[in-house]
Amino acid sequence: MSKKLLKWNEDRTLFPEKNSEGKIDVDYDSHKFMKIWHGPQHPGITGNMSLELTLLGDEVMDCETHVGYLHRGFEKLMERRKYIQCFPIVCRVAVPEPDFNEYCFASAMEELAGIEVPEAAEWLRTLVLEMSRLQSFLAWMGGQAGSLGQGIIGQWTIYLRDLILDRFEELTGGRIYHMYMLPGGVRGLLPDGFRQRMTENLDEIDRFMKDVKKVMFDNAVFKKRTVGMGVIDPAWIHPFGITGPNARAAGVAKDVRKDNPYLKYPELDFEPVVGKDSDIYTRADVRRRDLLMTVDLIRQIMAKIPDKGDIRAKTPNVLHWKVPAGETYSRAECTRGEYGYYMVSDGTEYPRRINVRGPSYTHAVALLEKMIVNANIADVAGLMVSLHTYPPEIER
Amino acid sequence: MQTIIENLQKHFQVVSYHQQRENLGFLIASKEVAVGLITHLRDYEGFAHLVLLTAVDWIEDEHFQLTYLLHHPEKKVDLGVRVMISRENAEMYSIHHLWEQARTYQRELREMFGINFPGSPDVDKPFILEGWEEIPPYRRDFDTKEYSEKTYFPRPGRETHDPAEYMKKKLYPNE
């Protein structure tokens, strides 16, 4: 790649040479190095995790990701609960995007039990997943702008996110955690007047996103701090397990919605948003365009979603449901990439093993530790947010 | 998928194969051939993406099941490689040289299941837990309830009242 991975001090004679392992020998007694903790309580960190940084001047020489501040042992908890009792747990694995957890868990269960979900429920699930994507992108956009000093964007996008949370509240009863999808279908049809209110909200988002484009993406400071910064080499995609917008910004059109279509996505008209330069700016722009595409997808879904019909397939009594023995993997495209549930059943009323595959697992540990070396300390927050990671899904 | 499995069987001993759905299958391979088979799948069959690596504790059969889930980006199919290893002296060959993120999975499995991956970078470093002295917590024989009762003391509950009596006293204090 012609671009540097990160902007650094051009005069490399100031820095010690790397050893055979590609790292520098850190000698704290020389008083040249400093160790600082970036997080777990820091506005520039995404959630409860921390980075142990070794600095030389203002440049990062080494980084180690620390997680575990939010470990609640979800996977173990689920082994001690009946399948239906897992639903209030799974949504908490990724706080800003609970619905992908619900969908993956429910669909894995349905596959093992051989249950067909009614068409109306499939449309409603598709709608909820896209609404979840939209509000998550809006929250992220405020975070990315805020990490580079633009507080106003966060105020706008959190307002827009609140509009979507209002619609969630109307549809599901909950703003953050919805527990709307259940094995066999969903909990309810669209309320009266929902379409009209959703259309108004989408129009509002469209209007605001034009301002966001001008204030954030056309801003000289934002460009200067993000263009050419934090480049992901396309050759890293598979070795590091990179998915979602992080991969698409590098020109690799990976999108589970297209690659392994699920729900009603084959009936929707869309193409994965792809970038070229793979820097922080491109990743942000890919997410902005993805957000606008989500607005369009919700409009398409609203035009096709039925007003009535079965929304729940007949299932056994959920309190005594023995899911047939077997194992499967169910995946969906969340805002950050491939989200998946690996489910193993031993034929009892309790899951034998659930493993959650969150994209942050690969993006926030191996990839971040590699990318952050030689970054300026002032760019660490911007770089980290540009990977869009959530710690709970690492330590689930 | 069937062609891929037939190709594999020419080079490796595949113990069994199960097609879960059109684009997902699971095979069982022995511990000795597993890393060679996974390398072959990555380099010759095109399964370039490691989706996940995890373990299942089959305590009654005295073994752990390691599942390597691989994805083929062009053919859009997934293949799970299942490897059974003994619970006693649980150890498996490392694949950190094949995928960068594998070291994180292996470090987690070492901590949560006590499965060792000799040679994997930082495999003995605590990942999520700090100062853990019990048996690895994701093993089936680790009892979460017993642990929490032993480790944490119960907080006294709040004072409770019979609602009818309470409201009666509150509304009609002089009666």
Automatic annotation (TrEMBL), chain A:
Keywords: NAD, Translocase, Transport. Belongs to the complex I 49 kDa subunit family. It is a peripheral membrane protein. Residues 155-396 form the NADH-quinone oxidoreductase subunit D domain. The keyword Transport applies. This is NADH dehydrogenase subunit D. NDH-1 shuttles electrons from NADH, via FMN and iron-sulfur (Fe-S) centers, to quinones in the respiratory chain. The immediate electron acceptor for the enzyme in this species is believed to be ubiquinone. Couples the redox reaction to proton translocation (for every two electrons transferred, four hydrogen ions are translocated across the cytoplasmic membrane), and thus conserves the redox energy in a proton gradient. It is found in: Cell membrane. InterPro entries: NADH_Q_OxRdtase_suD, NADH_UbQ_OxRdtase_49kDa_CS, NDH1_su_D/H, NiFe-Hase_large. The keyword Iron does not apply. One of its GO terms (cellular component) is plasma membrane. It comes from Prolixibacter denitrificans. GO terms for molecular function: NAD binding; oxidoreductase activity, acting on NAD(P)H; quinone binding.
From TrEMBL, chain B:
InterPro entries: NADH_quin_OxRdtase_su_C/D-like, NADH_UbQ_OxRdtase_30kDa_su. It comes from the Bacteria. GO terms for molecular function: NADH dehydrogenase (ubiquinone) activity. Gene3D superfamilies: NADH:ubiquinone oxidoreductase, 30kDa subunit. Residues 31-147 form the NADH:ubiquinone oxidoreductase 30kDa subunit domain. Residues 150-175 are annotated as: Disordered. SUPFAM superfamilies: Nqo5-like (SSF143243). Belongs to the complex I 30 kDa subunit family. This is NADH:ubiquinone oxidoreductase 30kDa subunit domain-containing protein. It comes from Prolixibacter bellariivorans.
